[in-house]
Every structure is written in structure tokens, then in C-alpha cells.
Amino acid sequence: MGTVLLSVAAVVAVSVLVTALVRAGRREARAERVRLAAEARRRARRSLDEVWAMDDRRFEEYVAELCRRDGCTGVRRVGGAGDLGADVTGNLPDGRRVVVQCKRYARHRAVGSRDLQTFNGTARAEHHADVPVFVASCVFTRPAREFAARHGLVLIDVNLLGFWNSGTPLTSFLDLDIGRSGTHRRLRPDRD
Prior knowledge:
Blueprint: H1 2-53, H2 56-69, E1 73-77, E2 88-91, E3 97-103, E4 110-111, H3 113-123, E5 131-136, E6 139-140, H4 142-151, E7 154-156, H5 158-165
Helix pairs in contact: 1-5, 3-4
């Protein structure tokens, strides 16, 4: 009888110890995920600080570099006076023609629907875009997002730009529901 009680006590003690170790491991794993996510946000913020410091031409070159990185071919920066709303052109890896409009605005600004209406009027008609993409270093207003959703424009705002910069491929953004995703809330100018 004493041996049975001793065995039961040993099993209970081992069970309690294993349970405690498993819980501690889960807590450590959870804390590590939180730490890694915070570090990723800090890295993205630092890289976006560099974006906000770029001039317009450098921002267009930066977007062209991201397109090339993601397997786009024939990528050219064509922005400048008389560009008719195309700053970067090329072909996606599947062959579709992509035309990109770039707006490097201060973080506290927002792109409105008027800019998108202008781009929409030229992207397909003038530049023969299969996939019109509008990239901004800020957010888009709610009316701009709604316009883009109705007209099949791809929007990459400051939040998605951080993901794109961190390695998410351009093709991952092509099927997002712009009308329901993202935010139209502007960042504060002094936000760190």
C-alpha cells in the first residue's frame, strides 16, 4: 500500500512539474512572439523614416527597386513632367502590365479621391495598365479607398508599404479588398 501511495505521489509530482514547465514554455514563446513583433515594427518604422526623407524621384526609384525585387520585368522609372500619372511601369511575373503612381507625402497627409480619379483616367487608357497601382507614403482617405474599390485600383498605403519594404511581395497586395482593409486615419507629424 505504501509503495502504491508513493508511486501515485511521484506521478502527481511529475505531472505538476511537467505542467509547470509546459506553461512556462508557452509564456516564454508568447513573450518571444511579442518581442519579435515589436522589433519588426521598429525596423519597419526606421525604414519608413528613410522613405519620408526621400525626395520624389528617389521614392519612385525605391518603388521601382521593390518591383524588380519581386520579379517584375522591364521595370522603368518614367515619372516626371508630363508622365500622365505613371511613375513606374513594368510587367508582373505573370506578364500583366503594371503601372504605378507614387506619392511621397508627409506622414500626416492623406491622398484623396481626386488623385485617384486622375490616375484612373490615365493608367489604363494612356499606359495600357492591366494592374494600376497607387503607392503612397501616407494613408488614403475613405472616399479614395471607396473609389479605388469601385474601379479596381490597387492601393499601397504607408502600412502596406512597410510590409512591402520588409519582404512581402507586390503580388500579395493585388487581391486585397481596399474598401474594407487599411485605415484612413492620418499619422501625427511627430509620431515616433
